[in-house]
Write a structure and sequence with these properties.
Length: 249
């Protein structure tokens, strides 16, 4: 049975895809994120969340709201969005729309909010149903959103004793529905599902059996806010955090 995606959902995923393609590799992108509001105490749905990739650091949090509407963004939209930014601790916000904005909305946005135009015709060639399905057994209809491509270099000796190095590239990302991390090895094409709430706390390796493995954990920042983090473990005490997503609590 073919997936049926509502146009608003496709628009949100398109915005996430464009953000991930354009941003610095130091930042990671999570579509359809949830953050617990510090002021309201309720779970806030974020169309696209942008955070620091390698550190348990929420001080550079950016949120994106994809508004697939037939009218322009107005001042009320900006004010509502700025309220959400304050609630989730975002330092900057981006409103994306297909039909522009009013002059009053631009004035209210000031420097804290950017308003960007993304025409609906960009959806014509965009098909998120081609993304891999989430491998988590209890997740239904989730798709894996790739947003990082860590490379591991391995030193080897040729038969004649000449030193050489081989580069192994991976894709890392998370499910756009349940948020669980996934890793794809471009060598063997295996996709691993790596939950952060796995009580066994064991590492995950692809069939290549190379000298590193993947592990997910839950970490806290200095204010106690929790994040799920995906780590590339390359030896005892040697690891890199390659992806993150904020948790609601």
């Amino acid at each position: 049975m073919k997936d049926i995606w509502e146009d608003w959902k496709r628009y949100e995923r398109l915005v996430a895809r464009l953000m991930a393609d354009q941003l610095s590799t130091e930042l990671c992108v999570t579509p359809n994120a949830s953050i617990l509001g510090a002021i309201t105490g309720i779970k806030r749905q974020i169309d696209v969340l942008i955070e620091a990739r390698h550190d348990t650091d929420n001080s550079r949090r950016i949120i994106v709201d994809a508004k697939r509407r037939k009218r322009k963004i107005d001042v009320k939209d900006v004010e509502t969005f700025r309220g959400m930014m304050e609630d989730v601790g975002a330092t900057h916000g981006i409103l994306v729309c297909p039909h522009g904005h009013t002059p009053a909305a631009e004035k209210r946005a000031q420097t804290a909010v950017s308003i960007r135009l993304l025409p609906l015709d960009r959806l014509e060639d965009f098909d998120p149903t081609t993304w891999p399905r989430c491998s988590r057994p209890r997740c239904k209809n989730g798709r894996v959103f790739w947003d990082g491509y860590p490379e591991v270099s391995l030193g080897l000796l040729a038969l004649d004793g000449t030193p050489t190095r081989l580069a192994f590239v991976h894709s890392v990302g998370k499910c756009d529905r349940c948020g669980v991390f996934h890793v794809s090895c471009t060598t063997c094409r295996q996709i691993l599902c790596i939950p952060e709430d796995d009580e066994t706390n064991v590492g995950h390796q692809c069939p290549c059996r190379l000298p590193w493995f993947w592990l997910a954990s839950i970490e806290k920042d200095e204010r106690g806010a929790q994040s799920a983090e995906l780590h590339l473990v390359m030896g005892h005490g040697k690891f890199r955090t390659v992806n993150r997503r904020s948790l609601t609590g």
